[in-house]
Design a protein that fits this description.
Number of strands: 8
CATH architecture: 3-Layer(aba) Sandwich
Strand content: 15-25%
CATH superfamily: Alpha/Beta hydrolase fold, catalytic domain
Radius of gyration: 18 Å
Shape: globular
CATH topology: Rossmann fold
Order of helices and strands: HHHEEEHEHEHEHHEHEH
Number of helices: 10
Strand order of the largest sheet: 1-2-4-3-5-6-7-8
Structural class: alpha/beta
CATH class: Alpha Beta
Number of domains: 1
Largest sheet: 8 strands, mixed
Length: about 290
């Protein structure tokens, strides 16, 4: 049974995140572009004070590299943030990056990848794949690719791209509620609309259309529709009050059918990307991630 704090967030998050269906796509576009111009992806003061955070450029992308002070880890986690492909790094991503650094002794790289609607997958896929390959050159203990929501979808697409290139440095892939079918048409999605108080299907389809560049069935934008063979071992976590649940289940099914190894955690009654939320259930999710890695 979900915790009291989770019950509170079910009421609070939709208001804070302005959860509503789309009634004017052009207005949504204007508002998002304005918000992106004003956004600051920098770390919260507490994270910056406790850890070594550097702004760097990797493969042409602005990134943040986070380590413990004075450390030179042999293992790298590349974390791709969520936000529907239209929003950048936020406090929850930063706090989770700090948890990874402290709990696993790794280097975390956070790419500040280009966002829709001004950009599509074409502006991010190859550069992030290049970044992961180059991280492998300085990570003798390997590279982990992680992502939540839209970042999880991009992570799967990047992993597929690395398989196509051959010689992927990835040892593990960790996904929280990955957005892997930007069409929004995975069977069962319509039935989930009433269960999820946060995500709205009209926004999922609008944002996905922008990210895809007009063809949401393109496997580069919707990696669920692409070849899922050859991926590294996966850990996938998703709650059952999540609009993306049907596509997450389908991803797990298809990876297993392609011969892949998947550890899947489905949390009854929990919200989208619950492992990042300030709820007690996130502690259990963290234990699964730590054990997996």
């Amino acid at each position: 049974m979900p915790s009291l704090r989770h019950h509170v967030l079910v009421q609070v998050i939709p208001r804070l995140r302005h959860a509503s269906e789309v009634d004017d796509a052009e207005r949504v576009r204007r508002d998002l572009l304005a918000a992106q111009r004003q956004a600051d992806p920098s770390p919260p003061r507490r994270v910056a004070a406790a850890l070594d955070v550097r702004r760097v450029e990797r493969s042409g992308l602005p990134c943040f590299e986070v380590t413990a002070r004075g450390a030179n880890p042999g293992r790298t986690v590349v974390y791709l943030h969520g936000g529907g492909y239209v929003a950048g790094l936020d406090r929850q991503h930063w706090h989770y990056a700090a948890r990874l650094v402290r709990g696993l002794g790794v280097r975390v790289v956070l790419p500040d990848y280009p966002l829709a609607p001004a950009h599509t997958w074409r502006d991010s896929l190859a550069p992030v794949a290049d970044l992961v390959e180059r991280a492998g050159d300085t990570s003798p203990s390997g590279v982990v690719l992680m992502g939540d929501s839209a970042g999880g979808g991009l992570a799967v697409a990047v992993a597929q791209e690395l398989v196509r290139r051959g010689g992927s440095p990835l040892t593990h892939l960790v996904l929280f509620s990955p957005f892997v079918d930007v069409t929004g048409d995975t069977p069962g999605t319509e039935q989930m609309r009433q269960a999820d108080p946060w995500l709205k299907l009209t926004k999922v389809r609008l944002y996905g259309g922008w990210w895809s560049g007009g063809d949401p069935t393109d496997p580069h934008a919707s990696p669920l529709l692409g070849d899922l063979a050859g991926l590294p071992p996966l850990l996938v976590l998703c709650g059952t009050r999540d609009l993306l649940l049907p596509q997450v289940r389908e991803l797990v099914h298809r990876v297993r059918a392609a011969g892949g190894e998947v550890d899947y955690v489905e949390a009854p009654g929990l919200l989208h990307v619950y492992p990042l939320l300030p709820v007690p259930e996130a502690r259990a999710a963290w234990r699964r991630v730590r054990a997996f890695l």
